Amino acid sequence: MTKKLIYQFTGDCPYTASPQTIKIDYFKIQTMGSMVPGYKKGEYSCPLSEECPYPAQDAYHRCPVYLNAPDKPN
Questions:
Q1: Is the distance from CB of 31 to CB of 38 less than 8 angstroms?
Q2: pLDDT band at residue 1, thresholds of 50, 70 and 90?
Q3: How far apart are CA 2 and CA 13, in angstroms?
Q4: Of 24, 33, 51, 58, whose CB count within 10 A is highest?
Q5: Is 13 helix (H, G, I), strand (E, B) or coil?
């Protein structure tokens, strides 16, 4: 069973030109050859996602705040 962590991340949003907080799902994964677990960023939620034009500029429709979030939760 994979453990999911929900993490709030605040970063600079180019759409609002101000800090924006999003929620990101992180999944705990076991890396082969390592005793230390890794993490993978999953889905995110943002209150402005329906109107924001920036995800359309990314091949995977991700927002800039999500892309700047750390690869593992703090």
A1: yes
A2: low
A3: 30
A4: 24
A5: strand
d(CA 41, CA 7): 10
CA distances from 24 to 4, 20, 33, 52 (A): 10, 13, 27, 17
Tell me how far apart the alpha carbons of residues 5 and 3 are, in angstroms, rounded to a whole number: 7
Q: Are residues 41 and 71 in contact, defined by beta-carbon separation less than 8 angstroms?
A: yes
**What are the residues whose beta carbons fall under 8 Å from the beta carbon of 68, sequence distance 6 or more?**
11, 12
The residue with tokens 């890794």 is 38
What backbone phi and psi angles, to 5 degrees, belong to 66? Answer: -60, -45
pTM above 0.90, yes or no: no
Note the pLDDT tens digit of each residue in 46-58. Answer: 999 899 999 999 9
